[in-house]
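Entry 12.
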Amino acid sequence: MNELEKSILKTLIYFDIFNYPLTSLEICNFLIDYSCKLKDVVRELENSENIKRYTESKNGFYFLKGRKHILENRKVNRVNSQKKIKIALKKAQFIRYIPFVKCVCLSGSIPHFNTQKDSDIDLFIIVKKDYLWFSRFFVTIVAHILGKRRHGKKIKNRLCLNFYLTDNNLNLEDLCYENELWFYFWFTQIFPILGKEEYDKFISNNSWILKRIPNFIEFNNISGSFIRESEVSQYFKHFFEIILGNEIGMLLNYILEKIQIFKMSFNKKSKRNNGEKDVIVNDKMLKFHETDPRKYYNRIFMEKTRFLSK
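Predicted 3D structure (tokens):
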């Protein structure tokens, strides 16, 4: 079995973990540990006996043998995702008014059109340096007042505000565990709904993901889904960024940091101080992934691909 065949199988196996069949173009874009052209992938899919031994295809989708039922899963979840994109754009409109927020992205399964009906809506937010706690406080409090924030048992179609980053800390390579794949593919599962220029900077600062997915092309298939800035939102935001873009604003950020840290101290079950990469709390990043599945998925992937190393 040649290296391209192994990479195609690795890619199909990885996405099979999430019940997600792939087109030939998607296989090429997400190809693991191998760089090539689409025509090379198509040639192997059509002609390789090694590939055909482990896979099937239908209606332009490729999947592992005996897994044809995940085609329906993808169809259903695509409809779910399209609905959630519309909901997300409507519910996240208020964020364009929050000072110092530079970029808002959909993350998780929605950009891959693979979300379930009862799931929440994950947002990844980039803010101006020195105003992380300020922005997080007002995004959270407004979302809560408007009844849009996920909390407790209120999950379906709620905004999950669990990942904030400052614009001077865009490279996230240190968050990646050794030999893992999940975090590499996380970058293919984010899509900007506000602040496309800052998103482009973020992606360019994380070109290290090309080491494992060298064919990755910016995931840009949700056309026309941007939150549009209005004259009112631009004026409102600009006005307060001028008023607070000084020592007063930084002092307010400091006060809000102390308030939020104090509140977090009551969560005795948090992984905040365990030295892992699941939950990170500092002046450049707020990452609240109390249930981080990366090690679990990586273990499954390693087990399922062990035969390829023989």
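Annotation: The domain at 78-292 is CATH 3.30.460.10 (Beta Polymerase; domain 2). The mean pLDDT is 91.
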